[in-house]
Specification:
With 320 residues, the protein is α/β, with parallel strands linked by helices. It has 10 helices and 13 strands. The protein has 2 domains: 237 residues, 3-Layer(aba) Sandwich (Rossmann fold), CATH 3.40.50; 59 residues, Winged helix-like DNA-binding domain superfamily/Winged helix DNA-binding domain (Arc Repressor Mutant, subunit A). It is 34% helix and 22% strand.
């Protein structure tokens, strides 16, 4: 029986500390898989199409975020008619200054795509292998399967397949998914419908929310700083209907990135004021379990956090 490939840790390729390789700077890291989530009618599909136009054309997404790797995009829009998809793409191209006729966005026109069936997984794999897109967008997840979204074991099969596509072909994958209705009181990742596997799976996640008439975008990355509540609006100028960032560049920069994982964990413990388990801290911070554990270990090493039989808490010097 052949061995699995392996390599000495010291011989693994090194990355420059503190750098992130982006597909779309600030929004989607290179070859990332992840969720574009939000409640119904939050313009998730418009943002997905804006990503498609930007990556395909090389022009900035939302007219603000530079594209670092452009190329072909493969799109499956399961809920909108092909005529609506064409009109929306044309409008975004008009807003972005992209040439629609030359845009390398390939649209899967099959009436259905079921990733819980072997035949459709094989068909999608063959299509990705043939076209070699830089970005694959599947919109929305609910139309891609008939499994129980709350069953982690069933959802994990679908997500593992998409991760396999990413690793085999070097393609970034955006999976559009619904959040629960009336979920504004939850952290964005916790508001996603179904299993928590969905939140933990993403290398880059984007969350759209609507509060009254205000649309906002929150970014979340496994290996880069995130940003909360970027204000957006759907604007129309002639044939151009597209999302626009309403804050100026200085305003967005002033808002700054979200707190670091260590800061988020420390803040959660400060707000709790009592010992908590790693799982409880994970729920409050909306972070992966591994990230929470790494942060707790680093804070404990600094003497900021201690652990007793009731869980993790701030040290007396920090709590004072």
């Amino acid at each position: 029986m052949s061995l699995l490939p392996f390599q000495r840790a010291s011989e693994l390729p090194a990355e420059v500390a503190g750098t992130t390789r982006w597909l779309v700077e600030g929004l989607w890291s290179e070859q990332a898989v992840g969720i574009l989530g939000g409640e119904p009618k939050c313009c998730k599909s418009f943002l997905a199409l804006d990503l498609a136009v930007s990556v395909a054309s090389g022009l900035p997404c939302l007219r603000r975020h530079p594209v670092r790797q452009s190329g072909r995009v493969l799109l499956f829009p399961a809920e909108d008619s092909l005529a609506v998809v064409r009109r929306r793409l044309q409008g975004i191209c008009a807003a972005a200054g992209a040439a629609f006729e030359a845009l390398p966005v390939e649209v899967i026109t099959a009436p259905a795509l079921r990733l819980d069936t072997e035949i459709d997984r094989a068909r999608l794999t063959s299509t990705v292998e043939s076209l070699r897109p830089v970005l694959l967008i599947l919109d929305p997840m609910i139309r891609l399967h008939r499994v129980d979204e709350n069953d982690a074991s069933q959802i994990a099969v679908l997500l593992s397949f998409l991760r396999e596509l990413q690793r085999r072909f070097g393609v970034a994958v955006v999976l559009v998914h619904h959040a629960r209705k009336d979920s504004n009181g939850s952290r964005p990742g916790q508001a996603l419908r179904g299993s928590s596997e969905l939140h933990g799976w993403g290398d880059s996640n984007l969350y759209m929310r609507r509060r009254g008439q205000q649309l906002t975008l929150t970014t979340e990355h496994r290996a880069a700083a995130s940003q909360d509540d970027i204000p957006l609006e759907l604007t129309e100028a002639g044939a151009a209907l597209s999302l626009t960032i309403t804050a100026g560049p200085a305003d967005v920069a002033a808002a700054g990135p979200a707190a670091s994982p260590l800061d988020r964990v420390q803040q959660a413990l400060t707000e709790l004021g009592e010992p908590a388990s790693a799982q409880r801290i994970r729920e409050l911070c909306g972070m992966r379990t591994s990230s929470v554990c790494e942060s707790l270990a680093a804070l404990a090493k600094q003497g900021i956090v201690v652990r007793d039989d009731r869980g993790y808490r701030l040290s007396r010097s920090q709590a004072a």
